[in-house]
Amino acid sequence: MSEIPASMKAMVLTGHGGIDKLEYQNIPVPKPAAGQVLVQVTATAKNNTDRKAREGLYPTKKGEMTSFQMGGKPTLTFPRIQGADIAGKVVAVGEGVSEARIGERGLQDFNIYANDRTDINLTPDYYGHGADGGYAEYVALPSDQFHHIPNPELADAELAAMGMCSYQTAYHMLTSANVQAGERVLVTGASGGVGTALIQLCRIIGAVPYALSQKDKAQPLLDLGAEAVLDRSNMSTFVDRVKKETGGKPLDAVMDLVGGEMTDIFIDAMIFDMNARSTYPRLSIAGASGGNISEILWTRIYLYQVQIFGVSHGTREEANQLMTWIRDGHLKPVLHGAFKLSELHRAEEYFVNRGGNYLGKIVIVPDAQWQAHGQAFALEEGG
């Protein structure tokens, strides 16, 4: 640890509230415990969960304001360093971890798993929420969850943009709904991190993705692999437009990141011709950007046998598969741009007020790493 400084810069969340609760501080560098690696952070992807956790927008009851706590009690305590999707380099190891890992460039599986099971994750939590994350110069992480990704064709900022918060959520949406090759899949919120991941993952498994987004983002989404892009600005004609794109066939499954009043319309696009189906209509939901409450007739759900899957995070097996696809070059980063760590307030404002040209992920780069890992991807608004 002699070459590692005693203190570091970090953006520290001091409580629930606005961006004023994020304070740029000088704090001690963590030491890796047994089974951990100390990672020098080079880039961390920004996710919507950062804002929602900070603002207490994970209610499980009406009127509640809290962070999520599926394990039975809140794990977001203060002070906390946010940032889940961490790319960086191993600079020290804890007891039981081979020193051969020092120098490895890698990507973090962001989950805090409750146990060693690889096939299920019932009480999801994550680094940046239940433990400190990557909005800092250094972070201590479980060695078995920091995956070596040597690929020289990927810049560190691009690697962070492929973080598990988006890609694993997307993959778990597909596996939960048992999406198969050849099936027609609607991807809502298609221009965001989970949406762009879904489009790529559909193509990997052989499914056909139809993207719902703004008209000005159509070509980049088509280039990414969307079969067609449906304009979300006029949802009154949505089902007719789906029929036109699919040759009159219903969607097999919907990957819903929107919620609100749109969910009922998405169901319409799956059930308009049950005789044309060979599987049950399936809807995976992992977000509610269009509203946290949807009004749906339960008779529609049970008479049409619509299967609904709530998705939060994913499993170790899925993370391992995704890391393999990244190493093998099957997944492409969709990086919108980078901000310095000291400018996280500006990055948060940009993220909330992002315009029509926004596609993919924003990454946050420690100021000391900016020239090497951030400058090439800088946004005008972010310096």
TrEMBL record:
<protein>
    <submittedName>
        <fullName>Alcohol dehydrogenase</fullName>
    </submittedName>
</protein>
<dbReference type="GO" id="GO:0008270">
    <property type="term" value="F:zinc ion binding"/>
</dbReference>
<dbReference type="InterPro" id="IPR020843">
    <property type="entry name" value="ER"/>
</dbReference>
<dbReference type="Pfam" id="PF00107">
    <property type="entry name" value="ADH_zinc_N"/>
</dbReference>
<dbReference type="InterPro" id="IPR013149">
    <property type="entry name" value="ADH-like_C"/>
</dbReference>
<dbReference type="Pfam" id="PF08240">
    <property type="entry name" value="ADH_N"/>
</dbReference>
<dbReference type="GO" id="GO:0016651">
    <property type="term" value="F:oxidoreductase activity, acting on NAD(P)H"/>
</dbReference>
<dbReference type="InterPro" id="IPR002364">
    <property type="entry name" value="Quin_OxRdtase/zeta-crystal_CS"/>
</dbReference>
<feature type="domain" description="Enoyl reductase (ER)">
    <location>
        <begin position="17"/>
        <end position="364"/>
    </location>
</feature>
<dbReference type="InterPro" id="IPR036291">
    <property type="entry name" value="NAD(P)-bd_dom_sf"/>
</dbReference>
<dbReference type="InterPro" id="IPR013154">
    <property type="entry name" value="ADH-like_N"/>
</dbReference>
<keyword id="KW-0521">NADP</keyword>
<dbReference type="InterPro" id="IPR011032">
    <property type="entry name" value="GroES-like_sf"/>
</dbReference>
<dbReference type="GO" id="GO:0070402">
    <property type="term" value="F:NADPH binding"/>
</dbReference>
<keyword id="KW-0560">Oxidoreductase</keyword>
